[in-house]
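2 proteins. here.
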Amino acid sequence: MRGRGTVETAAADWLLSSAGEEPGRVRVQWASGNGLADLPVGRLFDLVRMSEGTGMAVVQTLRRHEAVVGPVMLATASHVLSFLVPPGSAQEWKAWLRGSGHGRRRAVAAAGPGRVLRCPRPGCVRQGHIWLVRPGGPLTDSRVLWAALRDSAPPRPLGRAPYALFR
């Protein structure tokens, strides 16, 4: 049986591999300042971000259907969940969102190469950021995540969004 430290180390190593040539920079960021590192998106994962309420409903739907729930991080200050999805998924999500109420409200967004994920070392809570599902295992399948979003959180009527996930 693997101990908790082993799981956290494996998750941290997986995240460090996303940093490419700069794992040392990530280690320094985790160890100093606010404890958050900026990991480049697009190499090992893309992101799908959604409001906390919507995201938690999606997680429940995925679990109810016994689907794989890959890494998920919560930023408590902004109430945003970030799902790690396979690289290249952001383009697909942007196309799906373009015609949906979720996209028009800007309550769900996708990010690919050129973006960063500010995250703590797995097993740590820093500046209100916490891993709800640790990295290191399989990523959430993009199409399954989209289906869970449609099933669990129909978009509300258009109006002013409480915040935008990406500006």
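next one coming up
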Amino acid sequence: MNAPKLQEHASRRERLFIAVRLPESVQQFLHMQAKLIRNKLDFRKWTDQRDYHITLQFLGDTLMSDVGHIRAALHNVAADFHTFDLQLSEWGTFGLEKTPKVLWRGVNGDVERLHQLQQKIVKSTKKLGFEAELRPYRPHVSVARKYLGSLPGMDHDGVFEIVTEHASHGNSWSVDGFVLYVTRLGQTPMYETVDTFSFS
């Protein structure tokens, strides 16, 4: 999305969020592991590998006329932050164990710095009227949504038996910035970059 489009449709609302984008090598690694699991577990929707990310803050339906202020606040955050390293870690789920809503991959490494970044972003956008979620921040990469059951011919005791078989950790990567995304429902990939914010 470019600046002229944003100005042209300033009164329109778009669903925005801020995230750490995974580098292509990590996207590919996670995609290969997801393919192995996908052959055994039936989820309604699997995340396109180009959409793999770690959410920092969900902004929700936002007036395009406010994007300039959001950009300015996020550039200030990025200018005061430095590169840190993360690595994919354990698999996990949200929702009921037998019928989870989300299958995700966690992260380890310098998670404290990730939390600091998330808190700085929340603080900077709060001045613009955006509120943080009430639930504690749990950084993760969503891989699939809405478990429907095991595929025919698969004899196992549920999601965790399968994901435990594919729990090898990927190489670490350096986080050198974050992005502002707009959600494009019905498109693949579903997330489009509005702007990129690189650390100093």
